[in-house]
Design a protein that fits this description.
It comes from Alcaligenes endophyticus. This is Glutathione S-transferase family protein. Helix 1 (about 20-30) runs antiparallel to helix 6, helix 4 packs antiparallel against helix 5 (about 130-150) and helix 4 (about 95-125) packs parallel to helix 6. By secondary structure, this protein is of the alpha+beta class. The mean pLDDT is about 95. A four-stranded mixed beta sheet has the order 2-1-3-4. Strand 3 and strand 4 form a beta hairpin. The protein has helices spanning about 20-30, 50-55, 75-85, 95-125, 130-150, 160-180, 185-200; strands at about 15, 40, 60-65, 70.
Amino acid sequence: MLINDPSAVTGWVLRTSLASPFGRKVRLAAATLELDIRVEVADTTDPDDSLRQQNPLGKVPVLLLGDGRALFDSSVIIDFLNEYDGRSRLIPIGEKRHLVLVQQALADGILDAALLQMYESRFRPVHLHGGQWLEHQRGKVQRALSYFEQHLPQQQQAGPHIGEISLAVALSYLDLRFEGRWRSQFPTLNQWHKEVQTRGWLQE
């Protein structure tokens, strides 16, 4: 199915929360492919929200298709959008495919660890915070950033691939929730993220 069938997209709905970095990743990917997908806000904490019927895990994002199917999580949605578009812009073919998918997985891992740190402070009393557990999550972020400092995603002419999008979203989330403290320690990443912001595709 190719992008020259825009009628199918009309019935699609992306259920996400506006604060979700994984939802933002999907929104940026859709914008890269010029897919105008309607966004509907979901409340992951509301047991009456239909999100829990659409995704038994009660997590966002979820892509609802016109035929009633629900796709989740973000990496599955990205794969679907890439296949629907048909140009392999988000996930290239050939030897670069798995490199880009690894970059996406690593950036998603940064988000997972960062979100777990946020949940710890948001949902657990201070006296119950697990110092060792929090340090374990910080270590994941630190090692992943160190990797990207040495192995930046390579830009492609056709627009950003999902490795670039995922990393840019992860770094922006660290700016938002952790005051951008990563920037002074990772100058190459810092410069890369600043350059990405000037390209325009990171804006919504």
